[in-house]
Amino acid sequence: MTMIARFFRDFSSRHGTGAASFVMAAVLFWIVFLILLPQLAMLDVSFRHNLPRPEIGGPKDVHTLDNYRYFLFGNSGGAALNALDIGVLVKTLVAAVLVTLLDILLCYPIAFILAHSASGAGARLMVIALIVPFWINDILRAFAFRILFGATGVINGVGLSLGLWTAPIDFIRADVALYAGLAYTYVLLMVFSIYNAVETLDRNQIEAARDMGASWWRVHWRIVLPVAKPGIASGATMVFMLTAGALAAPQILGGPSNLWFTQLIYQWFNDAGDWSRGSAYATILLVVCLAFVFVMMRIFRVSIGAIGR
Amino acid sequence: MRRLGGGLFAFSYTLLFFLFLFGPLVIMVITAFNSSAFPRVVPWECFTTDWFGVLVRNERLMTGLWTSLAIGLAVVAIAVPFGLAGALALADIGPRLRAGLYAVLITPILIPGVVLGISTIVFWSYVGRKLGAGYDTVFFNGLFLTLLGQVAFIASYAMLILSARLQRFDPTLTEAALDLGATPGQAFRKILLPFLKPALGSAAFITFLASFENYNTTVFTILAGNTFTTALASKIRLGTDPSLSALAVIIIAVTLIGAMVQEAHHRRRALLAGGRPERSWLYANPLTRLLTHPAAILLILLACASAIVWQASHHDAQACRADILSEKQRLQEKLLQEQQQRMQQRQTETPAAPAAPSNNPSPFGGAFNPGSLAPK
Amino acid sequence: MTKDVVLDHVSIRFGGYTAVENAHLTIRGGEFFSFLGPSGCGKTTLLRCISGFVQPSEGRVLIGGEDMRNVGPNKRPTALIFQNLALFPLLTVAENIAFPLEVRRVGRKARRKRADELLEMIALPGTGDKKVHELSGGQKQRVAIARALAAEPDILLLDEPLSALDLKLRQHMRTELRAIQQRVGLTFIYITHDQGEALTMSDQVAVMNAGVIEQIDDPQTVYNQPRTPFVASFVGESNAISGVVLSQTGRLATLDTPLGPLVGQAAGGRTYLPRERCTLFVRPEQLFIADTPPEVNEIKARRVNEEFEGSIRTLYLEAGGKALRLYHMNAATSAALATGDGALTVSFKPEQATILPDDPALSG
């Protein structure tokens, strides 16, 4: 509290009381009412029974672990694991990791080319060409992949007419369309994250290493990659979180039998109307994803300050 | 090749990469002009612009569009000031608190959108209940909840953009203003805010776009209502037709025009800042000089676009479609006859077999009659 | 118009770190006053304290007899010229200069008129509509001064304003600054690590080291009669020769040094105890080559190296295991310079050397 008071005093002496009050009020409202309290409310509801409105606050309205128990054991009462839902969570995480890795592989060369090979007008054109596809709605992008990968889509059409395969392949059911669509959706984030890091590299360093006879992969491994690391970490964190939390793409591109964890949350919340269980599943997603990201950041020795830079 | 990453590999990789980026969009654009009721390129049936008409007459999408625009503007009006406040606080707070505050203000970007959506409605319905408010109050209003849910994380985007600009601000400028007699408020308004102006502009643009495009949070917070994006998603989930491709065509066109005008603006500014605009031949002639102005370019592009739209709106695909229709009917009759023949054969072989012709997996699916959707 | 600035036992601390320790001095109205010291000695902090950006942890700052505590930087009769000048990049030159008037809600026309007058004064007429980045370094410098003057301060504070300029321009701006100061008659408080700037422009110089003001005097006194070893070595070049006191008669003390007995002046009228450890400081230009053996301060030296610099020649000598430096005017010829083995006798006048105690607490 004293720290806040001191900040307020210093800030108003620099920028005026009006600006200081505005900054304090906005930041506090944002943190408390838009970030902190909603998460706590969700956490609280996840520990309650799903009751009709008149019974809320009544004798039945007590804290319970039921919703989490359900996630772990289903209706088996502790006898067997809820393989279905746990499986969906694991599958979502694994798929998100795959999509993130795919994006790193896809974007690292482009980011490097953009930062160190393209010049003036070419680089500007590349930037515009990178950005333009991303003004288009997420939903429409997923739609484009559905057209592309559908049973009568372009890929199947080309494959069939070239004789590569004889019967239409169901890319949607195989989740190929989903992974491709998700990777596509977050390409821009990854490219610019890596670009921002790689761009700071002095070109002379690369040339010096080349002069000393280092092969190009060694130059990348020893010189470029260490510089790119914070960018890759920042991009990977965002792509992973966004992929794991994606809802639109799985709904549009996901196969009928393959669920994304967010779709489970959606079903509990909107189709079953069970806010408590939906909240519990949302909490599980949040905690698992954040824990995963923090573990990864520990392993790769990156701080949260690198994210978003 | 001295330059690392230059050369053939870089060129072909770049080419493939942008093919991956633009291929799906190009195909989607093409499907917008195919009269086939299912969005596809092959088989090509007729060139048509009717899908644009179908799009405009989709009432759910159009009301969603207005809702989205309203929400977007409101989000800009709140998220940009919040982001500014966050960026200013980060810039002036002590180094020990800064890391913590940054982590807190950046988390909304990392929290999955569905989680934000759920937590927002759960919290505000709780507040509403505590206050004894009814379902017709603001706490159960989809627009209000969407606004709050979106601002929670979109303000972080604004903060990132403004922070980046603020880091390049020289704090001695504020001190100089104070020292010269300005009040802190005057220094803020006359020195710091003008410096942030370009970043405020791009923050407003990005926040609007983020709000307009958002699905994950909005699909929860909008409750029973619809924004453009949620209407779009539910339409695609229920079944697709090329009117969505037509929408993509419009968005891509607008984006391209925007990008070109922006590029013209950028080049012109670079030329003017270079100090010798008169060296360029474009600037020697007053007419070509006028044409380099972004507004002139915008006008020209808009004129081209409207000419195309006018031309396209007079295109009539009726004749072609009738041909296709009769062709299809012929094909259908042929299939039907073949089927009947087969059935007769089968009946003669195993008279008890049930007939199930309705599950015919024809490549044309059930969408036989695109003409019924078209305007008469 | 003229207001004295008084620092009344001012100390400034940041956490556990002391930036300024017990600064106590008076700067008279209309004076050109310099703080001279190496970077990190606390001089900028002191300047920011006078302009109001830093509050003293102890003591008071008085301007024109008024206590400045709780008076913001925008309410003080001071104007600061920042090291990086801090010109507003988005405003034109005229808007920059008129900024102090704009915040006082002076009308647009009057503002422009005053800006043009000031541009005339700094010899940059007609540049009012240019952007700041179109000006050269020296022009920016002058615009910053004009902008500060537009605020009509009583005291102008300058924080190493010449450090970004090249040598020629710096020398030119020195004379110009001094001329402006004499024309407008304001108090100038000037911060620098360049002794040349401090000595040429100032009426008074305060030499600072590690947050402490070691000496306040006019430039000549600071140069000729340094009060502390730091001042002696920081301001100008000095040969430092340490030894122990043999005797003292009046102001002259004799020191036993590895170079033999040397006589110099006891600094600030001190009286040394016999056997007290002291250091004798003598400037390279005060050392001379003695063609005939001198009465006192006879130093047998050997020439190690020499540098020819036009008007003077620097001789690098070695005597009693100690390296010495000597500036020899080229006009003055000496037979000894020509001897082949490099052996020569050098000397200095006792009243031109200063003897300072190694431990100032011992003698009074």
From TrEMBL, chain B:
<keyword id="KW-1003">Cell membrane</keyword>
<feature type="transmembrane region" description="Helical">
    <location>
        <begin position="102"/>
        <end position="126"/>
    </location>
</feature>
<comment type="similarity">
    <text>Belongs to the binding-protein-dependent transport system permease family. CysTW subfamily.</text>
</comment>
<dbReference type="InterPro" id="IPR051789">
    <property type="entry name" value="Bact_Polyamine_Transport"/>
</dbReference>
<keyword id="KW-1133">Transmembrane helix</keyword>
<feature type="transmembrane region" description="Helical">
    <location>
        <begin position="65"/>
        <end position="90"/>
    </location>
</feature>
<keyword id="KW-0472">Membrane</keyword>
<feature type="transmembrane region" description="Helical">
    <location>
        <begin position="290"/>
        <end position="310"/>
    </location>
</feature>
<feature type="domain" description="ABC transmembrane type-1">
    <location>
        <begin position="65"/>
        <end position="262"/>
    </location>
</feature>
<dbReference type="Pfam" id="PF00528">
    <property type="entry name" value="BPD_transp_1"/>
</dbReference>
<keyword id="KW-0813">Transport</keyword>
<dbReference type="InterPro" id="IPR035906">
    <property type="entry name" value="MetI-like_sf"/>
</dbReference>
<feature type="transmembrane region" description="Helical">
    <location>
        <begin position="7"/>
        <end position="33"/>
    </location>
</feature>
<dbReference type="GO" id="GO:0055085">
    <property type="term" value="P:transmembrane transport"/>
</dbReference>
<feature type="transmembrane region" description="Helical">
    <location>
        <begin position="244"/>
        <end position="261"/>
    </location>
</feature>
<feature type="compositionally biased region" description="Low complexity">
    <location>
        <begin position="337"/>
        <end position="363"/>
    </location>
</feature>
<keyword id="KW-0812">Transmembrane</keyword>
<dbReference type="GO" id="GO:0005886">
    <property type="term" value="C:plasma membrane"/>
</dbReference>
<protein>
    <submittedName>
        <fullName>ABC transporter permease</fullName>
    </submittedName>
</protein>
<feature type="region of interest" description="Disordered">
    <location>
        <begin position="335"/>
        <end position="376"/>
    </location>
</feature>
<dbReference type="InterPro" id="IPR000515">
    <property type="entry name" value="MetI-like"/>
</dbReference>
<feature type="transmembrane region" description="Helical">
    <location>
        <begin position="138"/>
        <end position="162"/>
    </location>
</feature>
TrEMBL record, chain C:
<dbReference type="InterPro" id="IPR003439">
    <property type="entry name" value="ABC_transporter-like_ATP-bd"/>
</dbReference>
<protein>
    <submittedName>
        <fullName>ABC transporter ATP-binding protein</fullName>
    </submittedName>
</protein>
<dbReference type="GO" id="GO:0005524">
    <property type="term" value="F:ATP binding"/>
</dbReference>
<keyword id="KW-0813">Transport</keyword>
<keyword id="KW-0067">ATP-binding</keyword>
<keyword id="KW-0547">Nucleotide-binding</keyword>
<dbReference type="InterPro" id="IPR017871">
    <property type="entry name" value="ABC_transporter-like_CS"/>
</dbReference>
<dbReference type="InterPro" id="IPR008995">
    <property type="entry name" value="Mo/tungstate-bd_C_term_dom"/>
</dbReference>
<dbReference type="InterPro" id="IPR003593">
    <property type="entry name" value="AAA+_ATPase"/>
</dbReference>
<feature type="domain" description="ABC transporter">
    <location>
        <begin position="5"/>
        <end position="235"/>
    </location>
</feature>
<dbReference type="GO" id="GO:0016887">
    <property type="term" value="F:ATP hydrolysis activity"/>
</dbReference>
<dbReference type="GO" id="GO:0015697">
    <property type="term" value="P:quaternary ammonium group transport"/>
</dbReference>
<dbReference type="Pfam" id="PF00005">
    <property type="entry name" value="ABC_tran"/>
</dbReference>
<dbReference type="InterPro" id="IPR050093">
    <property type="entry name" value="ABC_SmlMolc_Importer"/>
</dbReference>
<dbReference type="InterPro" id="IPR027417">
    <property type="entry name" value="P-loop_NTPase"/>
</dbReference>
<comment type="similarity">
    <text>Belongs to the ABC transporter superfamily.</text>
</comment>
